[in-house]
Design goal:
Farnesyl Diphosphate Synthase; 304 residues; mainly alpha; Squalene synthase HpnC; 59% helix; EC 2.5.1.21; transferase
Length: 304
């Protein structure tokens, strides 16, 4: 999910999205927390523990049924996840959270399991962005819904930020995703560099294998793609009022900071995983403040 302050992108526990922080208006902290715990628990069902793919899919189906019950204002007495669906049902009733956005998140988790089981890949960037449309973009749209922002421009900018955060998570985490059978590099980008999914099998935890230069170049190109998307969505920070706008500034800058760290590693995230730490806070705050006056220039694109 990048990592900046916590709620998004589906994998990595949505660590790239803000969850009910002190910057959020107090009256919105409960529904934001409810959305986060809904997504986080579904993420755990899809990824954690030793369950088989069939068992994970069955659990996600049961989870979807409980979401439908929550939309009806019910929490079944035999609920397996009352700590999730009790607060969520209250938030849906009070704030009208759209069911289709919450259901989209679950469909992305199902897709992760099915693609892993079937050794699936993403043909091109459009197909990967469709995954982001369901795995990450709904979170941004749910937050805009809570803030009462519904116009098409704001929604498109939110989608760009959330998709960028999801992509950043992918390019940050190949050392985690590849051993799990998750392959998020678009095949068209791989083909341009003579790479196939088979070339990536050697990268595993504690592996001594060095990634070929073509794989490093691939990371450089997709990092630029993610940066481009983030800059496309960044003007949204000026649309959200007060604390919400400042929260989003930090989310955007956190994602960009991860991209900078990937570049500092020479784009080799097969061997190391960059992360945001406490020492990054002053830089993030400084850049968030500067967003009020000007946008950071785009870095030069790497060779395609």
């Amino acid at each position: 999910m990048p990592a900046t302050p916590h709620l998004a992108a589906a994998p990595a526990h949505y660590e790239n999205f803000p969850v009910a922080s002190w910057l959020c208006p107090p009256h919105l902290r409960p529904p934001i927390a409810a959305i986060y715990h809904f997504a986080r628990t579904a993420d755990d069902i899809a990824d954690e523990g030793s369950a088989s793919p069939a068992e994970r899919l069955a659990d996600l189906h049961a989870y979807r049924e409980e979401l439908a019950a929550a939309v009806r204002g019910e929490v079944p007495p035999e609920s397996r996840w009352p700590h999730v669906f009790g607060p969520l049902a209250h938030s849906i009733a009070r704030h009208g959270l759209p069911e289709d956005l919450l259901a989209d998140l679950l469909s992305a988790f199902v897709q992760d399991i099915e693609k892993t089981r079937d050794r699936g890949t993403y043909a091109d960037r459009a197909e990967l962005l469709d995954y982001c449309r369901r795995s990450a973009n709904p979170v941004g749209r749910l937050l805009l819904h809570l803030y009462g922002v519904h116009d098409a421009t704001a929604l498109a900018q939110s989608d760009a930020i959330c998709s960028a955060l999801q992509l950043i998570n992918f390019w940050q985490d190949p050392s985690v995703d590849l051993p799990r059978g998750r392959f998020y590099f678009p095949l068209t980008d791989c083909d341009r560099r003579g790479l196939t999914p088979e070339n990536f099998k050697v990268f595993a935890p504690l592996s001594a294998a060095e990634p070929p230069q073509e794989a490093i170049n691939l990371i450089a190109v997709v990092v630029y793609w993610a940066r481009e998307l983030m800059h496309r969505g960044a003007p949204l920070v000026h649309r959200l009022p007060g604390r919400a706008g400042w929260e989003l500034r930090l989310v955007v800058q956190g994602g960009l900071r991860i991209l900078d760290k990937i570049e500092d590693l020479g784009f080799d995230t097969f061997s190391q995983r960059p992360a945001i730490g406490k020492t990054d806070a002053p830089v993030l705050l400084w850049k968030a403040v500067r967003m009020r006056r000007q946008s950071a220039p785009m870095k030069a694109a790497p060779p395609r």
